[in-house]
Amino acid sequence: MNIMNYKLNRFIILCLLMVSFASAKGTDYQRWWGFYDENSEQVYVGTNTAETYNCAVSCASSNEFLNGATIHGVRFYLRDKTNISDVVVWLSVSRPASADQADIAVVNVPQTQLVDFDHDHQMVEVELPQPYTMESGKTILVGFSFKVNSVKTDADKKPLVIVKQNVGKGAFMLRTSKSTPSWNELGAMSDYGALTLEMLVSNPSLPTHSVDVSSLTEAMGVKNTICEPSVTIASSGFAIVSSIDYELTVAGQSKGTTHLELDSPIRTAGQRQRLPLSITLPATNGYADYQLKVVQVNGEPNEAESPQQSALLLAVDKKATRRSVVEEYTGTWCPNCPRGIVGMSNMERDFGDRFIGIAIHQGNDPMTVSAFSSLNSQHNGAPTCEMDRVIECDPYLGDDRTNYHYHASTTFGRILSRVSEADLSLTASWTDAGQTHIAYKASTTFYLDNDVSTYALAFVLTADGLRGSTSQWYQANAESGRNTYSDDDMAVFRDAPNPVTDIEYNHVAIGGTAVDKGISGSISQPIVSGHPQTYNGSFSLTDNPLVQDKSRLHAIVLLINNATGQIVNAAKADIMTPGESTGVLKDGEKWNVESGRCDDRPVIYDLQGRRLSRDTTCKGIYIVRSAKGRLPGKNSLKVVKR
To answer: Rounded to an integer, what distance in angstroms lies between the CA atom of residue 396 and that of residue 329?
Structure first.
């Protein structure tokens, strides 16, 4: 099925739900309810075909809003009514092949009643002649059907409006007369979301003034300073939510009650809204938690079952320099993984040495390494990635899988902005003339005190520029000759064959030690703020078939908090020759004091002055600093275009 989607103007969407015939025709217990969140971004979708669309949501009586509820009406978005006919609203226990086969209700919508998104900025609203009451234990489909008479405009190609929201099965179901002749559960697919359909429901058994606290973000920062986490609330009653009063408790200390008028009232039952908070962190370092409880809604007592949530709070003595890790799960056999290759390159371009990439290959791939089998077993599929093991997302699309554009740097930037409890550094050097063994030294300085350590260090060895000549090294390439991702950065794979036979692989994980939970005892306890501690170890490259160019190997250390499973900081180092890191040079070499490198290893910066890996291969303009042929400290700069 070829369904395409495009961004809409979010401003218009926020205005649409102001319209409701509930207040004019219904009772105090009538509310519009749907699977989607009006604050989520919207997209157009369609099959690019003149045919009949049957669209629906699946409604189970087990849903708290629908259990015992009566459905009085239905409303939905049509993008453009100009070339649409035969519009029908229907309810059915079975999955009908067409609207006229629905077994509960069928309501034909007169052409004169149609409004649309593009011109009227309104929803089509249909009142059921006979309200339907949900029966216990039953699931029904609530849907609408229409015919696209011909495909002349973009609105004809993509006549439906959905939201980019991961709701799950039942939130968007589709069957068409030609392209999709059986029902498809698109709501459970990452590239889609929820259908913009709502039901006018009444249910006197549900509360009126009710707001649940869905989630709290972590509160992190330097002690005795203000940080700004956020809370997500959800309407769980029938009253429109205009204001809330909440109690805040920080590290066991009550901070009183705050009254908040919502800039955008919550008008739809089940709708969520994210609100900013302002919290002063404790005056002492360490971990704690904070709680938020919504006590009043619209000035009335909150009737919700889940009115409060708790979240982690971290106060540190000093802000550490954070580097974040992207563990990309990929494979040469994976036809969609070229976008991950581009995504990793883009993040390195955008964030320089604050980005640490680890490409973990899977399956029948010559770069698959047994040291990562435990991580691979948790990620059976590609392309995907974990950022600091905080969020799992797409290495190109980031956490925005419904929009076919590069978004991973935005997601990575949010992860990188998190506060770390420790600084971390790493040095690595060859221990022998044959360059078969690497010694490394990690230094960790925490900015909190903790009697019991839940932290451990893990070590990874990566390689850039790996190549192979057998077919297992060829990269499968579904993007060849296609335009799925219209960004210019994907042109390299659009213009390449399938498979790609001439390719270099970067960030490849070729070895590792305790990569899942870290080495026991690698962080000593108790942890004392400001007191550095070191850990020494080694890698052996004997019989490692993935060692090709030893000048393009990198050692990486991960600081893992096993209490949360997250990577809280990381560091990356080139492999120095013996004595290089201490300033003892080989014959003929000159030491670059400013860059900390030998003169035959140039340092590369982008035009914003951010230092990049010397293996950067993206197209663009870069500044190269070199001391070759000059005295230490008298470095030359040149601008190069790649």
So the answer is: 12
Q: Which residues, other chains included, contact 152 with Cβ-Cβ below 8 Å and sequence gap of 6+?
A: 83
Q: Cα 153 from chain centroid?
A: 33
Range 300-303 contact pairs with CB under 8 angstroms and sequence separation of 24 or more: 300/208, 300/209, 300/239, 301/209, 302/209, 302/210, 302/211, 302/244, 303/207, 303/208, 303/209, 303/210, 303/237
124 close to 113: Cβ distance less than 8 angstroms:
yes
Same domain, 195 and 51: yes
Question: Would you say 292 and 315 are in contact if contact means Cβ atoms under 8 Å apart?
Answer: no
Give 263's contacts (C-beta < 8 A, 6+ positions apart). none
Domain limit, last residue, from 316, 345, 370: 316
Q: Residue 616 is part of which domain span? A: 591-642
Residues contacting residue 135 through CB under 8 Å, at least 6 positions apart: 61
> Which residues 6+ apart lie within 8 Å of 363 measured at CB?
331, 333
CATH number at residue 161: 2.60.120
Do residues 614 and 601 lie in contact, with contact meaning Cβ atoms separated by under 8 Å? yes
Under 8 Å CB-to-CB from 240, ≥6 apart: which residues?
265, 266, 267
Q: What is the pTM of this model?
A: 0.72
CA 335, CA 571: separation in Å to the nearest integer?
A: 31
Q: At what angle do helices 338-351 and 408-416 cross, to 10 degrees?
A: 50
Length of the chain as a residue count: 642
Kindly state whether residues 540 and 469 are assigned to the same domain. yes
326: left (phi over 0), alpha (psi -120 to 50) or beta: beta
pLDDT tens figures, 197-229? 999 998 888 888 999 999 999 999 999 999 999
C-beta neighbour count of 89 within 10 angstroms: 25
From the list 409, 440, 424, the residue with the least C-alpha distance to 553 is 440
CATH number, residue 229: 2.60.40.10
Q: pLDDT tens-digit profile of 283-336? A: 999 999 999 999 999 999 999 999 999 999 999 999 999 999 999 999 999 999
Structure token digits, residue 324: 């974040």
What is the 8-class DSSP label of residue 233?
E
The reply to whether 585 falls in a domain is: no
505-516 CB burial, b ≥16 within 10 A, e <16: bbbbbbbbbbbb
463 class by beta-carbon count within 10 Å (0-12 exposed, 13-18 middle, 19+ buried) = buried
Please choose, from the candidates 418, 290, 353, the residue with its C-alpha nearest in 3D space to the C-alpha of residue 612: 353
**Residue 411 DSSP SS3:** helix
Please, which residues bridge with residue 174 across strands?
Answer: 55, 184
The answer as to whether 343 is a domain residue is: yes
pLDDT in tens, 534-585: 999 999 999 899 999 999 999 999 999 999 999 999 999 999 986 554 333 3
Closest CA to 539 of 441, 467, 425: 441
Cis status of the peptide bond prior to 526, with omega within 30 of 0:
yes
161, 178, 202: which is the final residue of a domain? 202
119 shares its domain with 183: yes
Neighbours of 267 (CB within 10 A): 18
Parallel, antiparallel, or unpaired for β 30-34 and 197-202? antiparallel
CB atoms within 10 A of CB 54: 25
